């Protein structure tokens, strides 16, 4: 059965078959986490887009529900596209989404639950006055999509952002509304950055500079920064920037214009797109969902009968130690899947060594590891002007004085297939260490029709910090986080030999000068058994 191929994941959200893309309208409602998603019910490629729907108590164990919305009106007949949920103070749930009309014009539509007392929100009503927004003058018909969650203004109105572009400048438009039916376009734009192309799936939310709690989207005031995120249609990556939002002037200014939206920091340096956050009032945290596509061929997707996963939901908060980036971390509920753990204390990795880690089957793992460099070697090692980049410096096979070192996951016995996830440290001419975090797919699969690039970027490491990483392995996805979530890299890999019982995990140190000491905790992960909802399941 190709649909049940070994590449299927065990604890990541995916439909039973066919194509999925963006996360839509994530929300916690009457005790359930709801997840909607862009879905093609007819094929494993994009098209015929409807809203798929699933519910969960913990964002891990999902139950598939009937499709929430399908194209059945002139204003969404070419697709029920991406949208967001807003919960009003009285508990009412509002859904705004983009429809592609009978003439392929992008318009915004309002929908709401047919029965607000149904915790499963099975049936949805499209507002009879749809569309509620059409492209304004100066905006092209196909450059107006993906409304955000609304937030409250000091004037007592609701405000939403919608992504667009003018020439090659990505922009975010703002609208105010009192009833979600009629809207007023705000003069000027919330923000724009030249050369960044169409901004898809804009996200805009506050983060606290003083607490770890997430904030409701409407919170503003002292001790708050605002995150703006855009998905760049031209390079297919999600970029965010931190800045200050002024409610009165309806503008947002980046903290650092050189790392503005679309030209600076990414949520993830692998495959991760069209992401969206929501405020989880149940656990007072902000949660990030991101679409993780395939990096094999379309032909392979059609053959296996499905395409795309959702990344594990992540909490996002400001990194109060650096002040310049977010921290992303898989929601704590992921840990409920941990089964047996194997601990390894102070494993010494000499330069040029590979050490197998005996953990049993290695296709479903949660790996937590720390690395300590050899202090004497660090003193001895000369300063270097090496211009390292993960993508262009030879990957895990390259040998430098201090790295690469890290883990080989989804490796087969002979190591012909392996996905290295690693650090690389350069001692610069100023004597300071600069650390990179990379994932190398060049040897991830014997198959030839899969992406084999090397992902990664620089990661800030503060004085006195150990190098640390966490890797979640789930058959064909590897999600890697370093330094408590300052950086993440999501890889899709398609081993042909390192599957099921044949998959292994190893430590490696390819440095020429420094030994590394590593301590690890590795858990086998249970499956989440994601399945269709059936009426005989008890609700409460
Ligand atoms: C992003 C996106 C959105 C659009 C949806 C259509 O991946 O292109 O801009 O609403 O997907 O499926």
Essential attributes:
mainly beta; 2 helices; 37 strands; globular; binds beta-D-fructofuranose
Walk me through this protein's architecture.
- A 6-stranded mixed sheet has the order 21-1-2-3-4-37.
- The protein starts with 17 loop residues before the first strand and ends in an 8-residue tail after the last strand.
- It has 540 residues and is mainly β.
- It is built from 2 helices and 37 strands.
- It has helices at 298-304, 375-380; strands spanning 18-29, 32-40, 50-56, 62-69, 80-87, 93-100, 106-113, 124-126, 151-152, 158-166, 169-177, 183-185, 191-193, 199-208, 224-232, 237-246, 251-254, 265-266, 273-280, 285-292, 306-307, 309-310, 314-318, 326-330, 338-349, 353-357, 364-373, 402-411, 419-427, 433-440, 454-458, 467-474, 477-482, 487-492, 504-509, 516-525, 531-532.
- The model has no long low-confidence stretch (mean pLDDT 96).
- Beta-D-fructofuranose is lined by residues 21-22, 38, 49, 81-82, 98, 145-146, 200-201, 274.
- Beta-D-fructofuranose binds next to strand 1, strand 5 and strand 14.
Based on CA inertia axes, which overall geometry fits? globular
Small-molecule binders here are:
beta-D-fructofuranose
Secondary structure: helix percent: under 10%
Major pleated sheet:
6 strands, mixed
Strand content: over 45%
Provide the gyration radius in Å: 23 Å
Q: Going across the major beta sheet, what is the strand order?
A: 21-1-2-3-4-37
Number of separate strands: 37
The first-to-last residue Cα distance is 35 Å
With helices defined by DSSP (H or I, 4 residues minimum), what is the helix count? 2
Query: Unreliable runs, pLDDT <50, ≥5 residues?
Result: none
Structural class: mainly beta
Q: Give the overall pLDDT as a whole number.
A: 96
């Amino acid at each position: 059965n190709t649909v049940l191929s070994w590449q299927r994941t065990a604890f990541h959200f995916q439909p039973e078959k066919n194509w999925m893309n963006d996360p839509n309208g994530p929300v916690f409602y009457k005790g359930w986490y709801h997840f909607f998603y862009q879905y093609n019910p007819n094929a494993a490629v994009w098209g015929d887009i409807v809203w798929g729907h699933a519910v969960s108590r913990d964002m891990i164990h999902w139950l598939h529900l009937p499709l929430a919305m399908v194209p059945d009106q002139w204003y969404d007949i070419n697709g029920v596209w991406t949208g967001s949920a807003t919960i009003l103070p009285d508990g009412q749930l509002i859904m705004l989404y983009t429809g592609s009309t009978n003439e392929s014009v992008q318009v915004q539509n309002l929908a709401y639950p047919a029965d607000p007392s149904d915790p499963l929100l099975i049936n949805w009503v499209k507002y009879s006055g749809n569309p509620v927004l059409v492209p304004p003058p100066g905006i092209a018909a196909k450059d107006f999509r993906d409304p955000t969650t609304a937030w409250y203004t000091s004037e007592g109105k609701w405000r939403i952002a919608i992504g667009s572009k003018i020439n090659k400048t990505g922009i975010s438009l703002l609208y105010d509304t009192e009833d979600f039916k009629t809207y007023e376009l705000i003069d000027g734009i919330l923000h724009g950055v030249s050369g960044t192309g169409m901004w898809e799936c804009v996200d805009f939310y506050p983060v606290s500079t003083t607490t770890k709690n997430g904030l409701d989207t409407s919170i503003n005031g002292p001790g708050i920064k605002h995150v703006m995120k855009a998905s760049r249609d031209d390079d297919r990556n999600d970029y965010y920037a931190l800045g200050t939002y002024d409610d009165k002037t309806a503008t947002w200014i980046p903290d650092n214009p050189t790392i503005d939206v679309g030209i600076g920091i990414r949520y993830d340096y692998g495959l991760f797109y069209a992401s969206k956050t929501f405020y989880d009032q149940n656990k007072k945290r902000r949660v990030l969902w991101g679409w993780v596509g395939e990096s094999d061929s379309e032909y392979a997707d059609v053959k296996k009968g499905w395409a795309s996963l959702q990344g594990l939901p992540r909490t996002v908060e400001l990194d109060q130690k650096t002040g310049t980036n977010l921290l992303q971390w898989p929601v704590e509920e992921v840990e409920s899947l941990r089964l047996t753990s194997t601990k390894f204390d102070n494993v010494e990795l000499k330069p040029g060594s590979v050490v197998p880690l005996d953990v049993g089957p290695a296709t479903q793992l949660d790996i937590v590891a720390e690395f300590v460099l050899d202090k004497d070697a660090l003193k001895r090692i000369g300063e270097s002007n090496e211009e390292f980049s993960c993508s262009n410096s030879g990957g895990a096979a390259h040998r430098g004085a201090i790295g690469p070192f890290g883990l080989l996951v989804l490796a087969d016995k002979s190591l012909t297939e392996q996905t290295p996830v690693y650090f690389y440290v350069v001692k610069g001419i100023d004597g300071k260490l600069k650390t990179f975090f990379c994932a190398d797919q060049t040897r991830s699969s014997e198959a030839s029709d899969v992406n084999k690039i090397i992902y990664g970027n620089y990661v800030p490491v503060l004085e006195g910090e150990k190098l640390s990483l966490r890797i979640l392995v789930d058959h064909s996805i590897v999600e890697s986080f370093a330094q408590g979530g300052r950086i993440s890299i999501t890889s899709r890999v398609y081993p042909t030999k390192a599957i099921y019982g044949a998959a292994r995990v190893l430590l490696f140190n390819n440095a020429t000068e420094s030994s590394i000491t590593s301590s690890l905790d590795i858990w086998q992960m249970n499956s989440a058994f994601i399945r269709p909802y059936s009426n005989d399941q008890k609700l409460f």
